[in-house]
Each structure stands twice: as structure tokens, then as C-alpha cells.
Amino acid sequence: MADDLEVYEKQGFGKRMGFGKRPALLVIDFINAFNDPDEFGGGNIQSAIDNTAELLAVARHLDIPICYTSHVYAEDGSENGIFNLKSPGMNDVLIPDTYATQVVDELAPRDGERIIEKHYPSGFFGTDLASWLARRGIDTAIVTGCTTSGCVRATAVDAMGHGFRPIIPRECVGDRAEGPHEANLFDLQQKYADVMSLEEVKNELAKLIPGQSHPDE
What we know:
37% helix; Rossmann fold
């Protein structure tokens, strides 16, 4: 890993883009099916949910826009696509308005917080997430969720493509396996996003919105 990092540094990758002025919190696919090892969960996803609950409390306290995604497919198969050829079991489980596709209780959305249903990895693809953020003057997307190697990565890359600065709190994203989790955090940090600690993200939010203490202080 040290040799890999040296190559990226030599070529000028891995610079920090930093926060803009108007952040939003994205909670990607922290739904029951992705937190169940017998379905599509496992690994460190529960830990990421626990840490995201802490960040969510801060975001609510600071009145930052919050948007969730849930990965769903119509029960009649009409919304199935190419992605389902790689993971055909998902369309049998991820049915709208079922326990499997509800946001986990620890992060349950409140009134005024948006939930977007999606069919592909990125929270932006085929949804109005970009325009929803733009209407609110957002320039920074704090991306939490699962999986790091799948929907988190795709959302972060698309966030950058739409002109939002992707920030990934390391402790707030999870994957069913450690190898893909760490490899994708490395790659995201080098080319597409700022991977920061949860504490760093909280400190940056405090700088943007001074005079507000965290809810646990």
C-alpha cells in the first residue's frame, strides 16, 4: 500500500478539495436488507450505521438538508434492468413499501427529510437528486451509506460529475467485505472524493455553521 500511495502522490493525485459553503447529508441505502447478513449485508455495515446516527444527529441540529436513498424494484419486474443480471436476487427482495427496503430504525427519516427510490447504484442515476440539491444551493455532498464499493462509490463519483464536492466520513460507510471497502476508500480518496474521519467532518461542519454546539455537548 505504501508503494501504491507513492505512485499516486508522484502523479499528483490525492489532493484535498475541501468543503464548500453549503453541505447536504446523503444516506445511501442504509435499509434493512443491506443490514442483514442473510440478505445483502454483513461486514462493517452495522458499525457504519451506528456512526452515521451520530452524524445524522449533528446534521439535524445544524439544519442541514438530508436525503436518503432506498434501492427498490417493482414486484412485477417492470423496473428490472441490466444491473439485475449481475445481482438477480435483489429484485426478488427489494420490493417497495416492505420491511426490506425501509431505512433502518436507527436512522429513521423525519418529516422534511427526503427519501429517493433508485434502481441503480448511484443515487443520482435516474433520479432528481442533482436538481433537489441544486435548488437548495448545495455545493458539498457528505456521502454515508453502503456499500462502499458499490452504491457509495457510484454516488460519490456522480456527485463530483454533477459539481458537488463529495465528502466521505470513513466510519460512516460500510461494506459486506473488508477488502473492497478499503480498496475503494483508497481509490476514492486519490481521485474522486475527500475521505475524512467522522470527527474531521463534524469539525468542518462546526466551522461552516459557527456558534452551534454539537447536540451531545
